[in-house]
Amino acid sequence: MHEMGVAQQMVNIAIASIPSDIVNPKVEKLNLRIGNLAAVVEDSLKFCFEIITKDTSLEGAKLVIEKVPVVVKCKACAHQWEVDGPVFTCPSCRDGAVEILSGRELEISSLELAD
Amino acid sequence: MEITIQKKVLEVNETMADKNRNYFREKGVFVLNMMSSPGSGKTETLCKTLKRIMPETRTGVIVGDICTRNDADRLEATGAAVVQINTDQFGGDCHLAAHLIDKAAREMTLDSLDLLIVENIGNLVCPAEFDIGENVKVVVLSVTEGEDKPLKYPLMFQVADAAILNKIDLLPYLDVDADLAVNNMKTVHPMMPVFKLSAKTEEGFDQWIEWLNGQIQAWKK
Question: Is the CB of B1 inside 8 Å of chain A's CB atoms?
Fold first, then answer.
């Protein structure tokens, strides 16, 4: 629901990371890592990104999204597993609070500029 | 040419949330972030909570809504200090971000408060994603929303420190299994305390108030 705000932040971060000595930079690709638990809808993000990058150095850039699986660790027995549904009960000891090791990412890894 | 960035997209919010956390600690105020879907009874739960904990616990409320200050008026009637945030007149945002909390908190006299409650915008998705610098997050689910909401919105129930199952006074009239709703919350968050209560009749309120006071006392130490 807040994909436009997320897209705006992405553009701010991307533009700030381009060295100022590059004249008329053109970004071809923006590489992202998005966890499966992150409250972001991929199609909606792409749509907002396309609109918000108009007339910027990111116009027409491709969003490449690497999805990050949800991996958790049981605080009681230290068992680690990948969660593929809304079940966070430890399959090993059936108890314990969990620590989320991955799956909440919303990160920009890198961008690729045209030569 | 590839440029490595490795940055969190919500970094600006996280930095602001940390700033809020430091500010609240400096002022000696415990902060509770209350979240739920629209119509779950957050405001009524808060009104009844305020009635029980004030004036011993000096409390202020920041209330977020897209439109209107109806909730602020209801909460102000309890005697609490209230600041209303409207994210936009029409449409608006789907959550309260850390910078909005900073702005609202600075309109309050935090030195004279022990507890600051943030009533977030009714939404089970986005508020779960945005840290505002709170000490605890509490999610409210009402029995009329159905038992399976925790499974449909797992992030919200996973990040919450406690949950309230509200409107239990309606159970005799509904085909809803309250125990199943609690089990679903525990599936998503096994160790989470869950309080079954009715904001209308105040059944089950004692345990909730006891937990809240315990959290504030533990933090003060």
Answer: yes
Cβ contact B151–A86 (<8 Å):
yes
Chain A nearest C-alpha distance from B127 (Å): 9
SS3 per residue for B159-187: HCCEEEEECHHHHHHCCCCHHHHHHHHHH
Express each pLDDT in B66-123 by its tens digit. 788 888 999 999 999 999 988 765 555 788 899 999 999 999 999 999 999 999 999 9
Q: Where are the domains of chain A?
A: 3-19+27-113
Query: For B188-198, what is the mean pLDDT?
Result: 95
Assign residue B104 a region: left if phi > 0, alpha if psi is -120 to 50, beta otherwise?
Answer: alpha
Q: How far is B133 from chain A (nearest CA, A)?
A: 18
- Residue with tokens 């680690």, as numbered in its chain: A80
Mean pLDDT along residues A15-32 = 95
Whole-number Å distance between alpha carbons of A39 and A32: 15
Query: Which domains are seen in chain B, by residue range?
Result: 2-220 (3.40.50.300)
Rg of chain A over Cα atoms, rounded to whole angstroms, equals: 18
* Architecture of the domain whose range is A3-19+27-113: 2-Layer Sandwich (3.30)
Instruction: Give percent above pLDDT 90 in chain B.
Output: 87
* CB spacing of A88 vs B189 below 8 angstroms: yes
Question: CA-to-CA distance for B43 and A21, rounded, in angstroms?
Answer: 54
CA distance B143 to B215: 25
Rounded to an integer, what distance in angstroms lies between the CA atom of residue A8 and that of residue A5? 5
Chain A residue nearest residue B126, CA to CA: A39
